[in-house]
Amino acid sequence: MRLKRRMRIEIEPLDKKFNFKLTAAAYSFSWNYDGKHYRTIIKYSDRNIGVVAWEENHKIIVEVYSNENYLSKEDVEHEIRNHLGTDENLEEFYKLCRGDPLLKDVIEGIHSRKVDIWYASIIAVAQQNASFRQGWKMIWNLLSRYGERFLLEGLEVELKYPPNPRLILERGEQVLKDSGYGYRSRTLMEIAKILIENGEDFLKKNLTKIRGVGKYTYGLIMMLAYRDYTNPVIDRWVKGLYETVGVTNVEEYYRKYWGRYQALATWMLTIMLDAAPLSKAIERVRRGDLKPSFSGITPLTLWRYY
DNA sequence: TGCCAGGCGGGGT
DNA sequence: ACCCCGCATGGC
Question: Are A292 and A107 in contact (CB under 8 A)?
Answer without folding.
Answer: yes
